[in-house]
Amino acid sequence: MPALTEMNTIDRPETTIQVSNASKRFDIYETPLDRLKHIVFPRRTRYSREFWALRDVSLSVSRGETVGIIGRNGSGKSTLLQIICGTLRPTAGDIAINGRVAALLELGAGFNLEFSGRENVYLNAAMLGMTAGQIEQKFAGIEKFAEIGDFIDQPVKTYSSGMYVRLAFAVAIHVDPAVLIIDEALAVGDARFQAKCFNKIKELKESGVTILFVSHDVGSVRTLCERAVWLDGGRVRMEGNAFAVTAQYTQFMSEGPGEGETLGLSRQTPDSAPARNEQAKESNQIVESARPVATTLGVEPINHWGTHVGSIVSAQVLDSSYRHQNVFAAFEPMVVRFAIRLPEGICRRALSVAFSIKDTKGTDLIVRTTHDEKDIDFDFDGSEFEIEFRLRNQLNTGRYLLVAALEDRSGAVPQYYEYIEGACYFSSYVESDRYGLFLTDVTERLRVEAMPADRQ
Predict the structure, then answer these.
(1) Which of 97, 104, 99, 89 is nearest to 22 (CA)?
(2) Where is the ABC transporter domain (predicted)?
């Protein structure tokens, strides 16, 4: 029997969320009459079709860990979060939670549209187990963070989508949660409020709050999360280091779903069980193969794929004398050099060579492509060549990786003959401590002049 239970904090004090083989089935009806027939004759199954939003999902999250949940629309992300929150019960499996859960799910969830913002604050906080006195102590902080002014006393139905999110997030972070769940709702906020929210999320993370973060923004997942879980078709397709998982997910989305991977409804019968077991076995193999990637950072590529793998013969970061170098000093000249062997039959006019330099969280710091500059013509005899990009090292102290790409830019979205994320690795060293990611060419000039008499 599926259950949502309070975790035994003595046996597992550091585990905040434990999901064990959770599955969720929905019955889909063609007409309202079919639904009524199913209620009257519950043993008959021909009135509905089964849709498994989740299938045998297991997840363990420790105290203070931030885990990203990624996947295309309809992959089961929101269903999983609702089961963890307790707003849905799993069809099978068990969920155990250690502590108070505050969730920011779909826009406006948990708000009574007829109540004012103030009344909804008290209602939501009370539902999370806070007393009236505790809410009163927290209210000023909630009101200040939300920044909705006099609208706090207006009905929520008059709020814009941004005001919804401001108030909902303010409540969620002020109720002292053990678990904070965020399901893409922040995407509707303005840039300033998003930055404010991300700073607060980092504070909560440092204070030991467990965070589940759902987003289609790979950069945000890599920045905030140590670990990521990729859901596809209701199953865990991959789990592990956030960089490695998001790299595989980016590849998958760039290539598009393969045959038989489209979303849809099905009548799942006992005859289809072997296929489901084989799919689960394949998913487990993918998960296992992903885990070592995180431990090999700096030794081999994080991700390597494309329609013509092998076209990039070599990719290097060299010094000005074309020598291989692992550490570059501030403002030292660098040469990014690729050796390319072009595939046969490609359109050279649409060809582009690109590189980017990323930090170890996967954030693009420097990006350059021949397509944007349009200075190089690849329409020449022969299929092998070398290309160089020259720059100065303006990166702050840290560890970085090179991305090498051979692109087909004939369409609106680049397609990749080859993409290597982590073609090589290097470090930057700056003698003195500097703030920021980059060392900029800034000069200072001080002018001391006598102030005019009329301004004294």
Answers:
(1) 89
(2) 34-258
